[in-house]
Amino acid sequence: MPELPEVETIVRDLAPSLVGRSLKNPRLFKRNVLREVTPRRLLGALRNHKIVDLHRRAKHIVMLLDSDLRIVIQLRMSGTLLLARGKPDQDEQRYRVLQAEIGRGTRLVYRDVRRLGTINLLDEKAWNAYTERLGPEPLSEEFDPDQFSKRLRGTKVAIKKALMDQRRVVGVGNIYANEALYRARIDPSLRTDKLNRSAKHRLYEEVRAVLNEAIDARGTTLKDYRTGTGERGSFQGILQVYGRGGEPCLACGSTLATTHAIDGRATTFCWRCQGIKR
DNA sequence: ACGAGGTCCTGCGAGC
DNA sequence: TGCTCGCAGGACCTCG
Length: 278
Prior knowledge:
Largest sheet: 4 strands, antiparallel
Order of helices and strands: HEHEEEEHEEEHHHHHEE
Number of helices: 8
Strand order of the largest sheet: 1-6-7-5
């Protein structure tokens, strides 16, 4: 679930407690989230190095250590990284994947119900090679409508699928793709090469607006997502289309529809506002 | 270059 | 109550 706003919220919450610190007693409970790295190497890196920076790139949490190594966490569907104190509750015990102590009775916990998330340990070269394949950050200052337009070139896939393609632009997943397309009044199934200049410009604006608003609301909690301090986000109460199939459109009152025709993912839209032929 | 579909996982609600 | 099925925020792969 976590998309850009959720990952950004977690990183902002955790950075003050983690940067400049080293972790103690790291423990790995489930090993199938590890990709290229072995448990031994991961735990060794956590044990022996201070955290010098924590930031977000795309939907990844990047923890830079005081070597050229970084621990890269991709939360995917149900991963969450948070600080916990006191006795771990049942859920934590059941779903924790990795944890480490940061002192004063506080621990850093990576929990993941479905364990589709991934943890990697990459040196600078491997990280650069990886991140170069990803698209630009939609909230960066350099990201302008022109760059967005260029990124959408050369494909006939549905605009919703292109928007979620992390090689074109990063950070947008199913929830915010639905929201941005609705807000920009664009048919999610429209071929990307058929979007006119004005539609692309509206989409650019709405992608940025919805991501910023979701960050302000500390993310969308449908089920598993928690902020870095273990709380629920609040954007789920502000969603206009996602999860509202069968309910009235907030703008025109038409009944919102849900389809799985685009890439097999739930797409909810308004026939009238998004100009879709029945 | 594209769409379709499978894969990694567990939980949950619907339907019987 | 208990079962089976399909679906859930993501990203990767193969096949035709």
